[in-house]
Amino acid sequence: MGDRVIAVDTNVLVRFAVEDDRQQADAARQLFSEGDVFVPKTVLLETEWVLRAIYRKRRSEIAGYFRKLLDLRGATCEDETQVKSAVEWFSSGMDFADALHLAASTEASVFVTFDESLRKAASKVGARPPAKIPRRKP
Known about the structure:
Layout: E1 6-7, H1 10-18, H2 22-34, E2 37-39, H3 41-54, H4 59-71, E3 75-77, H5 80-91, H6 96-103, E4 111-112, H7 116-125, E5 131-132
Parallel strand pairs: 1-2, 2-3, 4-5
């Protein structure tokens, strides 16, 4: 990253994605065109929620938007490799938050959860580390 890196908030990503406020969308586009924009994972997490819950965007639309964002020349995402994995797993059916949690756990040998749907979804997409349900030993 360069000397003048600008981190963005969720509302900037949302304006950039949905363009529902022309002035803010134009400002967001200009910001990204000037380069050196940093996107924290937490902002992506919140952006997915806003696009899904507030704007009623489909999974494919959100995943497509995230892919375009990751390909922008002037944008850098925190832990970009992990985020790319999370976007692909999300695109294949996982909850985005779960996918991001799992993708951020690459240093672990296993991801332990009581969430059976997360375990099944992670198994279905071949996520690593594998998600497991902890079992109490008799």
